[in-house]
């Protein structure tokens, strides 16, 4: 590796003399690797300056000398490697968080109905990913509540990580905020997804618009396996149970 590459750490720390800094900047203009490493080391000099301002540093010559001393090439190279590795670890953590978020978007609450023409209950209804997934799932349980008249079908699929579910909800009017709650055989309750029901509702047989006639399809996921589930509940945010579906 050319010697110019080895000076990127010293340049970032601000310890090169004018001639050395000028030579490195000329090299930096055409070196993508050094530009990347310099970006990784951004902020090192202010950090050292902050250390130099710590109480007592002015009265302790050894500290001042150690902060101003020019590090050996081996130390500079070690600084480059350590900082670059920490930044790489941070990027990997960010990637994993993005991947996890994407998985939640796919398995979690999906848009129930896509329309053209705004939020007034009109427009052309189109199929959604949740509805398409619902159609492919063979394990389905249904129920209609005798009091609220809300009907629900929960489609389930076993996954290595637990259970993927898609809810089909009918004959529900808003405005409401609701949740799909999984109740396990051990008594634990897990909210799989939540959503809002507009004024015109979903799955209303005698509705005036096609959108209102269409059921709501909403996805969810939980860590329990299907054989660990006792039942599902659709409940409002105020705690009212709209319908229960036994697993």
UniProtKB/TrEMBL annotation:
<dbReference type="InterPro" id="IPR027383">
    <property type="entry name" value="Znf_put"/>
</dbReference>
<keyword id="KW-0804">Transcription</keyword>
<keyword id="KW-0805">Transcription regulation</keyword>
<protein>
    <submittedName>
        <fullName>RNA polymerase subunit sigma</fullName>
    </submittedName>
</protein>
<keyword id="KW-0812">Transmembrane</keyword>
<feature type="transmembrane region" description="Helical">
    <location>
        <begin position="95"/>
        <end position="115"/>
    </location>
</feature>
<keyword id="KW-1133">Transmembrane helix</keyword>
<keyword id="KW-0472">Membrane</keyword>
<feature type="domain" description="Putative zinc-finger">
    <location>
        <begin position="8"/>
        <end position="35"/>
    </location>
</feature>
<dbReference type="Pfam" id="PF13490">
    <property type="entry name" value="zf-HC2"/>
</dbReference>
<dbReference type="InterPro" id="IPR041916">
    <property type="entry name" value="Anti_sigma_zinc_sf"/>
</dbReference>
